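Notebook B, p. 112. Complex prediction, attempt 2.
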Amino acid sequence: MSYEFDWSSIPNAAPFLLRGMLVSLEITAVAVLTGIVWGTALALMRLSGIPPLAALAAGYVTLFRAVPLVMVLLWFFLIVPQFLQELLNLGRAADMRLVSAMVGFALFEAAYYSEIIRAGIQSVPRGQIAAAYALGMTHWQAMRLVVLPQAFRNMVPLLLTQAIILFQDTSLVYVSALTDFFGAAYKIGERDGTIVEMLLFGGAVYFVLCYAASQLVRYLQRRLAV
Amino acid sequence: MIAIRHVTKYYGEFRVLADCSTEVRKGEVIVICGPSGSGKSTLIKCVNGLEPFQRGEIVVDGVSVGDPKTNLSKLRARVGMVFQHFELFPHMKVLENLMIAQTRVLGRGREAAAEKALQLLERVGLRAHADKYPGALSGGQQQRVAIARALCMDPVCMLFDEPTSALDPEMINEVLDVMVQLAQEGMTMMVVTHEMGFARKVAHRVIFMDQGRIVEDDETECFFSTPRSERAQQFLSKILPR
């Protein structure tokens, strides 16, 4: 039994695949940045000691961590586009899939980032906050000037690892037929009848990128440990 | 300068401070000692409001610490504190450690803050280390930087929470020397320490605490020659060289 691999679709479809990769990277970048900002806000709310804020943040994190990512994405594909179109008075034709994918990922990832950031904040010795207070800093100044810079330094490897997972998860946008890298590879495979080759190729690309990124994380981990 | 009146503090059911009262006049140096768990660190942390207390009153330079209307940050900016584990900010260079609160809390310009910082580093003998990170300094050096950092704020009084107990023996004196000098210049100081040599040399009064109570509050001479309570006698006999 032998199978003749046909790799000819790849060079021909290179521009299309590249555009797909850009979509994947765009979603990842937006979701990581907004996820970290919103996640930091959630972590600060959770640790604020103000009961309503802490409960709100805890509820948010629990909700998003207890629902499968695919479902969250589907909600956002089905609900957010209509909502935004009404709100911004856009035509029906406007393609909101990319935006809703970004929003969905950002809100979902924020829940995970907030837990990483919360642990990072708690890893800074309490004496540091006491010292900041003793110098007359307010709670917010102590957080911003003393605690968060140290927390983020400790967290860089974990945040990057989470970004790598997120990059892989962006392939889930196939549920909305949005053409990310995985979607592009799949479509080409279907068109040319080379599904097996394209899926192998796609997997190899994800592997190379993620493996390289995780090596970078290990390098950073060693450097920051000093 | 500092008045502590009938201060009582609980951690849940456990009473850490029981009806503590004392007074520190301007320019006075008070040493607080006692066995571990006696509440001495907790007491001085109540003075700048780092630890809340349930009953009683503490007034620092005319400001009531326990009053919910008091702006604690503003009060703390005028009360220097030095911690057992130094608590320098490890992500900032020494100079930046000394400037950050001056610029962000007092609103001083960067140049004035840097000048003040260098002047105080000079005073603790560490001007040459201004551009290093705290991690590159020895424990004794870090604690001297921490003292300089507190002095940058022009405090009306200084609180020391076991400033030498995390140090290797050969570094204790360099820190005590700075503190002695400060005391002799007339700084109002409350010092939690077991360094009885320091107490003998510069303290006006010694407070002995046990189980959350102030058991003795005496002139330094009296405290060492004729401690009244049995508990203080035992404590002294254990830590003083015969």
